[in-house]
Amino acid sequence: MTYSGRVTVGGPADVHELKDLMITKVAVGPMENNAYLLRCRATDEQLLIDAANDAGTLLGMIGDDGVASVVTTHRHGDHWQALAEVVAATGARTYAGRYDAEGVPVPTDVLVDDGDVIRVGQVELTARRLVGHTPGSIALVYDDPHGHPHAFTGDCLFPGGVGNTHKDPEAFASLLHDVESKIFDVLPDETWVYPGHGNDTTLGAERPHLPEWRARGW
């Protein structure tokens, strides 16, 4: 089946099958958060992005093979409600941005800085710090050697705009700058974007609207 990236809470997961990586997307919790399970095809090692809510759903998706790592994209509570339970059940290593880890109430094993590489089996993900939605939000970029890049952007980039900066002009300017310089300026239009809530998009679909976002200030 063709991957669409459209999921609903309580509904089935959607699976994006790449040559070296399988990406399973599920929606959980009252804020309809997205959680992403990445599985290296060569080693079967797994990594979870945002143990957002509903540990039972996440652990069912993880299955008997367990999960080696859980990455929390940022400190906001709707993105870590199930983190403690998932870590207790699996013994996974925890990752969070250096400047957001203090706001995540589960100890962070690995503090992530801009440009750090996080591995799941033989697959490498590059972390990009995007400042504005929170001080230490991180996106993860997989530059697929067999195709186009894939970017997991947390709450920093969505279809139709950057993340919420609560009408703070400085925070908005910072987030837009980081998203432009670290995502749009260095990745091609074909880059697939997996956000923290809602449907997926591509950089090509969003790029023409950057001037509009800048002008409106959100």
From TrEMBL:
InterPro entries: MBL_Glyoxalase_II, Metallo-B-lactamas, RibonucZ/Hydroxyglut_hydro
Domain Metallo-beta-lactamase: 32-197
Coiled coil feature spans: none
Top-rank lineage group of the source organism: Bacteria
Pfam families for this protein: Lactamase_B (PF00753)
CDD domains xrefs: metallo-hydrolase-like_MBL-fold
Protein name: MBL fold metallo-hydrolase
Species: Streptomyces erythrogriseus
